[in-house]
Amino acid sequence: xxxxxxxxxxxxxxxxxxxxxxxxxxxxxxxxxxxxxxxxxxxxxxxxxxxxxxxxxxxxxxxxxxxxxxxxxxxxxxxxxxxxxxxxxxxxxxxxxxxxxxxxxxxxxxxxxxxxxxxxxxxxxxxxxxxxxxxxxxxxxxxxxxxxxxxxxxxxxxxxxxxxxxxxxxxxxxxxxxxxxxxxxxxxxxxxxxxxxxxxxxxxxxxxxxxxxxxxxxxxxxxxxxxxxxxxxxxxxxxxxxxxxxxxxxxxxxxxxxxxxxxxxxxxxxxxxxxxxxxxxxxxxxxxxxxxxxxxxxxxxxxxxxxxxxxxxxxxxxxxxxxxxxxxxxxxxxxxxxxxxxxxxxxxxxxxxxxxxxxxxxxxxxxxxxxxxxxxxxxxxxxxxxxxxxxxxxxxxxxxxxxxxxxxxxxxxxxxxxxxxxxxxxx
Length: 427
What we know:
The chain is α+β, with helices and mostly antiparallel strands and 427 residues long. The chain has helices at residues 3-6, 40-44, 225-228, 240-250, 282-289, 305-309, 321-337, 358-373, 383-387, 410-418, and strands at 21-23, 30-36, 54-59, 64-67, 71-80, 86-93, 101-103, 105-113, 116-117, 123-124, 132-135, 140-142, 155-165, 169-172, 179-183, 197-199, 202-203, 205-212, 218-223, 258-263, 296-302, 341-345, 379-381, 388-389, 392-396. α4 crosses α10 (410-418), α5 runs parallel beside α7 and α7 runs parallel beside α8. The longest helix is centred in the last third of the chain and has 17 residues, at 321-337. The relative contact order is 0.18.
C-alpha cells in the first residue's frame, strides 16, 4: 500500500461528548435512535451509579465512511478489552452512512476461539428494552447495560444482524483482527459454522464501555496508521496502544486506566483525506473520537506525518510547520476546555519512504522541536528519539522497521509503548 493510502493522521466525528442516545417511547417492535445528547462523556467520567467503579471506554475504534453494503447478514466482530469490568454497553454507529441502519438483533458472548463463542455466555443486547433498533443516518446508539463481565485482555464477540440492505456502511477498514460474516440471522449461534466469510474490518461497531472496579479513567491514543497498527500482526493485539494497556495492567496494584485506540490509517491533522475510509481531519473528529470517550482523562496526540508527507496544508496550499503547530494548539485548547490532559508525541523519522524529502524533513524537525520545547502540551513522549536509527537520525531504527521505513513492526510497537513514561498519565 502506498504511504498516501496507509499512513497516519485522524478523521472526524464529535462523538461521545455529543453521544448519549436519548431514546423515545417504544411505540412498536422497533426502536429508533434519535439525535445524540450531550451528557454521555461527562456522566461517564464519574463513578458509576450501577455499582462500585468508574465507567470507562474499554475498546473504541474510530469510524469512517465508505464501507461495503450488507443484505441479510450477521456480522460477528472481535472486541479486545483493554481493562476488566462489568455492566458492559456497546455503541453502534451509523455516523458516516447516508441511510438509516436497521438492526434486527445484537448479542455479546465470550470468545472461545475464532468466531466460536464460549457456550452459555451469550447475552442479548437491547436498546431501550428492544432488540430491534433503527439508527438514523449520521447518528449512533448506545445499548442498555448488558450483564456480562470481561477481563483485561479478554475477547468478546459482538454479533450484529442486519435484515435488509444497509447501503454504504460506517466502518473501520484496518482492524488487524478477523471479522466473521454469515448469511441470515446467526446471532445466537455458539458455533462459527455458518460464518463462511471473513474480513479484517469492523462494521458499525464503535465502542465497548464497562464499569471498572479499578480504572479511574480512559487514555485515548489518537493518531494515524502507526497508532491504528498498520503492519502489526493480525489478531495478536500488537499495536502500540495494546502494549501500553498491558504495561498499565502489569504495574503494581490494579490497572488504573483503560486504553483505547483512535487511530485511522492515512488520517491527517488539518485536512480530510480524498479516500473516504481514511477519515476526516483530526480537527473535525477530535471532539467525538477522543474527548467523547467515556471516562477520558488523557489523550496521547501522535499525528501529522501524513500532512507532511502529502504536503497538505490548509486551503490546498503547501504545508508549513506553523500550520501543524496551529492545528495542535487548536486540539490542545479543545482538550483543556474539556478538562482533559493532552500529551504530545514527536513524529518519527521516515527516510527511505516515499514521504521523505529534504523539505519534508525540515518541517518534521521543526514540528518536533516545538512539541518538545513549547510547553503547550501537558507532557511529551519522544517517539522520534526512541525509534530513530542511532547511525542516521532521519531514518527509523532497522531493528524496528516493518520494511516500509515508516511503520514499526511488532517489536517497534512494543518499543513505542515502552518509551511512554507512565507518570505522564493521570491515575
